[in-house]
Amino acid sequence: MLPPPVQRPLFALVLRFVAGIALASTIALVKYIAQGGIHLAEILFWRQIVTVPLILGYFAGRGEMARLRTDLLPVHGRRAAIGVMGMFLNFGAAILLPLAESTTLGFTTPIFAVILSALILREHVGPVRWLAVALGFAGVLVIAQPGQAHMPPFGTAVGLSAGLMVALISIQVRDLGRTDEPLSIVFWFAALSSPILALAMPFVAQAHSPRQWLLLGALGVLGCAAQLLLTASLRVGKVASVVVIDYTTLIWATLYGWLIWDRLPGLATWLGAPLVIAAGVVIVMREHRLSRAPSEPQVAATAA
């Protein structure tokens, strides 16, 4: 088991801020590549497989291959299986919806974390957190506008499912972080999820232009960097100290949506997003007050 990590709140904030830029860039790149006709399953395969030689090369060059050793391979395997589903949902929402809207729906993760803790873990959830849950879903209703043509229902369902899946994944990542270091967690996720994604390759793989190969390679490097930054920030900072920084991804998503797709969020998104964000902040801060134990639930997005 690794020694308890030294908490460095300021450094954690910096890591989380850079991770937000890398994550928003990764999601925007997936959307852009998918619109070029490449299947999402193939995109995710190259997104994952590039990580394996990058981390192996790093450790091999330093003569530190032993740092990849783990006693929790079955746990990493479950994390990989759930992580693949999470990536399909997370990136699928970005393909189906405008970037700002899909990013906002991803902010429902802490809301789902409260629901899961009540239904599955049988934890007591007080009125403050239930009110925050109601506030968050009110924001979702404002954004989605059921019955209107603002957002496709299927895309909205995928975006909400992504928030739920990330809530499950983040708990696993937090637990793994107590015994395995960030590079090891990211490596095993990539190494174990790549064969799962490879099963689809005979059905979806196609020839690519040099430009498309360049984009796929850049996606792999960028996605690896985003995961490393996200995972490392969890090791040196607590949820309450970094979660607010996660919401800066909405800034970058909005910027990419405007620069690449000439799309700015509509009025409904500007009205609903603050409600979803406020709900997430209230939930996390409330969790922090109720329990300062290391086992506090993790609510950060890690399905990049």
Report on the structure:
- The chain is mostly helical and 304 residues long.
- It has one domain (9-290).
- Helices cover 74% and strands 0% of the residues.
- The protein contains 14 helices and no strands.
- Helix 6 packs across helix 7 (127-144) and helix 6 (109-119) crosses helix 8 (153-176).
- The longest helix has 27 residues, at 210-236.
- Mean pLDDT is 84; it is low at 293-302.
The overall number of domains is 1
The proportion of residues forming helix, as a percent range, comes to over 70%
**Helix/strand-derived class?**
mainly alpha
Average pLDDT, rounded to a whole number, is 84
Largest sheet: number of strands, sense, barrel closure: none
Task: Give the SSE layout.
Elements (H helix, E strand, L loop, with lengths): L8 H26 L5 H10 L1 H12 L10 H24 L2 H8 L2 H11 L7 H18 L8 H24 L5 H17 L2 H4 L5 H27 L2 H8 L2 H13 L5 H24 L14
Helix pairs in contact: 1-4, 1-11, 1-12, 1-13, 2-9, 2-11, 3-9, 4-5, 4-8, 4-9, 5-8, 5-13, 5-14, 6-7, 6-8, 6-14, 7-14, 9-11, 12-14
Brief overview:
By secondary structure, this protein is an all-alpha fold.
Pick out its properties:
single chain, 0% strand, disordered C terminus, mainly alpha, 304 residues
